[in-house]
Amino acid sequence: MTKKQHKKSSQNDIFQESLKGVKPLKNDRIDLYTHPKNTHPFKDRSDYTEDNISHTLSDQQETHNVSGEEFIFFAHTGLQLKTQKKLRQGKIPIDDHLDLHGLSINEARKLLVEFIDFAQKQKIRCVLLIHGKGYRANSDQPVLKNKINNWLRQHPGILGFSSAQPRDGGTGAVYILIKNLT
Fold this sequence. Notes:
Blueprint: H1 3-18, E1 73-75, H2 81-89, E2 96-99, H3 105-121, E3 126-130, H4 143-154, E4 158-163, E5 173-178
Parallel strand pairs: 2-3
Antiparallel strand pairs: 1-4, 3-5, 4-5
């Protein structure tokens, strides 16, 4: 064995000795994102009745129809560009979520209004709303997605919304930025 090989093997032995008792990591990435599964889904509807709903969302002001795969985005005037970008990228932590799959239009509208009112009272900033892509609809266009796109533009408690990232439901869900009550 040459001096070079001996030195290399002794360094290797020292390295192996220093690794005794070390457990390998299961994942080498840090997840900085708060996943919706860690949120508490909206369940408390005890404070709401038909009379308590303060906002009426109309179907009269229809926006252009979107397809199930189309990305939707809306921001009220004054919402900072940096915040809009974070919303589109899904970088604002999601505090709560609601799934509207399988609901009728009237049930979805009522539940959406209750959910937004609840979020405002709880001082929640960003929520995830899952509406689906409308693949089971009898028409070519997703009914609920188009209604949500229309209703959220009308609601005074909404600062903006954007189709979600694929990890959160993609174009079948939206991130909603809620206006704080002051």
